[in-house]
Every structure is written in C-alpha cells, then in structure tokens.
Amino acid sequence: MELPKDLLYTKEHEWARIEGKKAVVGITDHAQHALGDITFADLPKSGANVKQSKVMMTIESVKAASDVYALFRVSCAKPITISRNIRSW
C-alpha cells in the first residue's frame, strides 16, 4: 500500500492535509475497513470551536460508532464544506 507523503497522522487513525488556510481531514484506510459501511457522520456545527485532541465528530457505521479527534484547534467560523467524494488510498 502506498501512503501519501503530504498527510499528517494521529495515533487514532485520523489524518490531515494542509491546503493553504484549509485542511482536508479523513480517517486511515485501516479505520475505514474496521468501520465498514458508513451510515452517518455527526459533524461540528458552523461557528463551533474544537480543541486539539478533543472529539471533532462521530462516524457511525453498520458495525460501530467511532469518534474522530481534531489534529489541531479548529475554529469553524465559516460553514464547513463537506465532500461527498469518498476516496481511499
């Protein structure tokens, strides 16, 4: 398996890629396979402030629910853009 070199990882299987003033976040391939089919994602609300290493969102699947932790402090002053494109590396 080839891993992208521009990603920052946590021990809990989250990653982030910095793109200017924005960050794209996701979960590792291992975490995706462990969860199975995703059924729901509870995202932070616009205007929310999330502290580093605290729960940023919860992902639910047919197998389990899993918390996703913030890699850095997040201030969601603008609406969050959600990509419906799911990619796997």
Gist?
By secondary structure, the chain is mainly beta. The protein has one helix and eight strands.
Tell me about this structure:
Strand 1 and strand 2 (14-19) form a beta hairpin. The chain has one helix spanning 29-35, and strands at residues 8-9, 14-19, 22-27, 38-42, 49-50, 55-61, 65-69, 74-75. A three-stranded antiparallel β-sheet has the order 1-2-3. Strands 4-6-7 form a three-stranded antiparallel β-sheet, with no helix packed on it. It has 89 residues and is mainly beta. The chain has one helix and eight strands.
Number-wise, the strands total 8
Can you tell me the overall shape? Answer: globular
Strand content: 35-45%
Helix content: under 10%
The secondary structure category is mainly beta
Radius of gyration, rounded?
13 Å
Largest sheet: 3 strands, antiparallel
Straight-line N-to-C gap: 8 Å
Low-confidence segments, given as residue ranges, are: none
Summarize model confidence as the mean pLDDT. Answer: 80
Q: How would you write the strand order of the largest sheet? A: 1-2-3
Q: How many DSSP helices? A: 1
List the secondary-structure elements in sequence, H or E: EEEHEEEEE
